[in-house]
Automatic annotation (TrEMBL):
This is Sugar ABC transporter substrate-binding protein. It comes from Bifidobacterium longum. Belongs to the binding-protein-dependent transport system permease family. It is found in: Cell membrane. It is a multi-pass membrane protein. One of its GO terms (biological process) is transmembrane transport. Residues 91-300 form the ABC transmembrane type-1 domain.
């Protein structure tokens, strides 16, 4: 009886080769998981945590690397920034730029997505590619092209419209010119996202609305817009984060001018750091911009959640 039990126990045990193979597979999975986790931790530490901590540390010092100056000043840089009129002017310019760029990006993107999703339009794939092409074009190149287009002597804008406006040298038109360039470059991103959202909407809801006698506007207002709210939130948040960092287009097209009329927060940070070498002040502005971006993002998420619950 004992021999029978021992034989049964041996049969129930896996072969040594099977155990070894299973351990190797588990070892590979564990190793790959560790590599992935370590890679993410290293990426976060090097490209996110360290710059944020470095900026905050720099904001507490009078910092000029050219003369190896790094003197502790506490929160003086923040006080100087918050009492500086140019900072608030730049913040206002950034708000104006962000608001109108996001507004037209959402409206134009949604309108074109609705058009592309209708049965009236042919060659939808071609048009979708053409609309998205400006989005993947380098911002520096686009900014240079539009700078030349707005040129009062050789530009196409004045020739086509018949206007005689020095767009980038007039304080009334410089910021609108930058906004126009931004809308042209970025509307394709919103169009593609909205089009994907529209194609994923449930058809049975629209069929039920048609049976109830709802017209196009009622269907759009009561069904399409509410169901596209997550897409709209994604576009608004990603656009806001991007536009709060607007710098390249300002540098290329206006250099903050005329005067300081197109200064944005990010351009002011660049000016303080790399033109005036006030790295401590620039770091304080960067910290304020980081906190402001986080607060606005949280508020938008909260507002969207409240509207959804309502």
């Amino acid at each position: 009886m004992t021999n029978v039990n021992r034989s049964a126990a041996r049969a129930a045990q896996p072969a040594s080769g099977e155990v070894s193979g299973a351990r190797q597979v588990l070892g590979r999975i564990f190793t790959m998981r560790n590599i992935a986790v370590v890679s993410l931790v290293v990426y976060f530490a090097v490209f996110m945590a360290y710059p944020i901590c470095s900026a905050f540390a720099g904001s507490l010092h009078d910092w000029n690397p050219l003369i190896d100056k790094y003197d502790w000043v506490g929160f003086d840089n923040f006080v100087n920034v918050l009492t500086d009129g140019l900072f608030w002017k730049s913040l206002w310019n950034t708000a104006i730029y962000s608001f109108f760029s996001i507004l037209f990006r959402v409206v134009l993107g949604l309108a074109l997505a609705l058009l592309l999703s209708s049965k009236l339009v042919k060659c939808k794939d071609t048009l979708r590619g053409l609309f998205y092409m400006p989005t993947i074009t380098p911002l520096v190149a686009v900014s240079f092209v539009w700078m030349w287009m707005f040129d009062p002597q050789f530009g196409m804008i004045d020739k086509i419209t018949g206007l005689d406006i020095s767009w980038l040298n007039d304080s009334r038109y410089a910021m609108p010119a930058v906004i126009i360039m931004t809308i042209w470059k970025d509307f394709g991103y919103a169009t593609v996202l909205y089009l994907a959202g529209i194609m994923a909407l449930p058809r049975d809801v629209y069929e039920a609305a048609q049976i109830d006698g709802a017209n196009w506007w009622q269907t759009f207002r009561s069904i399409t817009l509410p169901l596209l709210k997550p897409t709209t939130l994604l576009i608004v948040i990603t656009s806001l984060i991007s536009y709060l960092q607007a710098y390249v287009q300002i540098l290329v097209m206006t250099k903050g001018g005329p005067g300081t009329d197109t200064y944005t927060i990010s351009y002011l940070i660049y000016d303080q750091a790399f033109q005036k070498y006030n790295f401590g002040t620039a770091s304080a502005m960067s910290v304020i911009l980081f906190v402001l971006t986080g607060i606005l993002t949280i508020l938008m998420f909260k507002a969207s959640g409240d509207n959804t619950e309502a």
